[in-house]
Amino acid sequence: MADLSPKMRRGIGLAAAGAVLALAASLVLVALEDTVVYFYGPTDLMGKPLDDRRIRVGGLVVEGSVAIDGIDARFDVSDGTTDVTIAYRGVLPDLFREGQGIIAEGTFNGKNFTADTVLAKHDETYMPKEVAETLKEQGVWQGGETGN
Asked: Residue 72 and residue 122: Cα distance in Å, rounded?
């Protein structure tokens, strides 16, 4: 390296720094891939090859679709276009109601969604941001307060 010009040494140093940064960014993205939970609306969910990846789905609980048997619950969530059946084992949140916005987290097998977490809104005007955006895209949500 003694016969390289200062300009070439600087270029090699910048290239090496860029390679190290690219490698670090790649490692961070790979590490985050397993912890990131993506949100889908019911329409977005259909036709997605999701394997056993954990995801969130949200929408309005369809009126008359809630069936509770002990600690097992089944209900449909809709974005106004598509309904997804959600199976949940556990106690539903106190604010869980038909016609209200919820977010469920779990896995989707291509037909049914099995949730291990159900999040319900906290007042009459609140709508989770992801659910409101999905419902706005489908023309169902007309406005109001959304979460962050």
From this structure: 23
